[in-house]
Write a structure and sequence with these properties.
67 residues; mainly beta; three-stranded antiparallel sheet
Length: 67
């Protein structure tokens, strides 16, 4: 569904994994698809975030346009 290169990490932290989320809407152009890409150190499984966010690798949230 996605190009292989999209699964490459942007960070160098070995515990970070790539997450992708497809657009739930429709584009104005038939051949365009949007999705989000970000990296995280795993799922929270419904746990609350800590009161103080720990220092660590920071990953950008990227909006990708695929044609």
């Amino acid at each position: 569904k996605y190009p292989k290169a999209i699964h490459q990490r942007l960070t160098t932290h070995p515990k970070m994994s790539v997450n992708l989320q497809a657009d739930s809407g429709r584009s104005m152009e038939a051949d365009q698809t949007y999705f989000l890409k970000w990296e995280s150190m795993g799922k929270s499984h419904g746990r609350h975030a800590p009161k103080v966010i720990p220092k660590g690798p920071v990953s950008p949230l990227i909006l990708v346009l695929a044609k």
